[in-house]
Design brief:
By secondary structure, the chain is mainly alpha-helical. Helix content is about 70%, strand content about 0%. It has a two-stranded antiparallel sheet. It has a single domain, classed as Farnesyl Diphosphate Synthase (Orthogonal Bundle). The protein is built from 16 helices and two strands. It catalyses: isopentenyl diphosphate + (2E)-geranyl diphosphate = (2E,6E)-farnesyl diphosphate + diphosphate. Belongs to the FPP/GGPP synthase family. InterPro entries: Isoprenoid_synthase_dom_sf, Polyprenyl_synt, Polyprenyl_synt_CS, Prenyl_diphosphate_synthase.
Length: about 280
């Protein structure tokens, strides 16, 4: 990913800022899910390389903006100073904008996909990342601060803010692989439950995690008085809910009738990880 950004004709500071956040590390969960889905259908993972890169760029842009003082006001991300702490708020905002827009260029120029498939994937990704997806979830998250949300309201936030891009990763992989509509629907539900399990685990790690492992301060949600699953359900209740979603995810994956070993490993990792 950084190599394609280096070739862009743009001021060096914006390219440096974009690459800084892309190189900060992270689990690369979304690209991995896309590749694992292609693997589940016996397809060459190379088919999804451009979409996977674009997806990680969009995820990274969202983190840059999420960390800004006007949003979560975080100083650390993946164990490193957040983008705006290094490059200033203006450049950080523009770096996020750059990653978002360049992601669609990467898919549009892909040599691995047909023109029809590229158009469908771009429209799908725009929906998942936009106001009816991730952006809408972020807005709901901001509006929910300092309020006592119920579980349904909290699920709406996380299904959109986090879940939509996770679902995109899996379903886009299925679409590229030529999956049937029934398989796409089963995998979409698999990814939906997996996304909720992922977010509940994040809430649990905000209480139990180690800053050296998770790369950002623990207890930040409590300090901001945000609604979380442990706050609403108790810590034990949140753990049970996380396991319930994992079970549901596995049930839907079985219905998809694909080679599921790798996707099952990823699902178990999400629930058992320490960062």
């Amino acid at each position: 990913m950084p190599s394609c950004i280096e070739k862009i004709e743009a001021p060096e500071i914006i390219k440096e800022s974009m690459i800084y956040s892309l190189n900060a590390g992270g689990k690369r969960l979304r690209p991995i899910l896309l590749f694992a889905t292609l693997h589940a259908f016996g397809k060459d993972e190379k088919l999804g390389i451009d979409v996977a890169c674009a997806l990680e760029m969009i995820h990274t842009y969202s983190l840059i903006h999420d960390d800004l003082p006007s949003m979560d006001d975080d100083d650390l991300r993946r164990g490193k100073p957040t983008n705006h702490k290094v490059y200033g708020e203006a450049v950080a905002i523009l770096a996020g904008d750059g990653l978002l827009t360049h992601s669609f260029e990467i898919i549009a120029k892909s040599k691995e996909l047909s023109d029809t498939l590229k158009a469908n994937i771009i429209a799908f990704l725009a929906q998942a990342a936009g106001p009816s997806g991730m952006v809408g979830g972020q807005v709901a998250d901001l509006l929910g601060e300092q309020k006592d949300l119920n579980v349904e309201e909290l699920e709406y936030i996380h299904e959109h803010k986090t879940g939509k891009l996770l679902r995109f990763a899996v379903v886009a992989g299925a679409i590229i692989a030529g999956a049937s509509k029934d398989q796409q629907e089963c995998l979409d539900q698999f990814a939906r439950h997996l996304g909720l399990a992922f977010q509940i685990k994040d809430d649990i790690l905000d209480i139990e995690g180690d800053v050296k492992q998770i790369g950002k301060p623990v207890g930040s949600d409590v300090g901001k008085d945000k609604s979380t699953y442990p706050k609403l359900l108790t810590l034990e209740g949140a753990k049970n809910k996380c396991n319930d979603h994992l079970t549901s995810a596995k049930e839907w994956l079985e219905k998809a009738n694909v080679e599921s070993d790798l996707l099952l490993e990823i699902a178990d990792y999400i629930v058992n990880r320490d960062h």
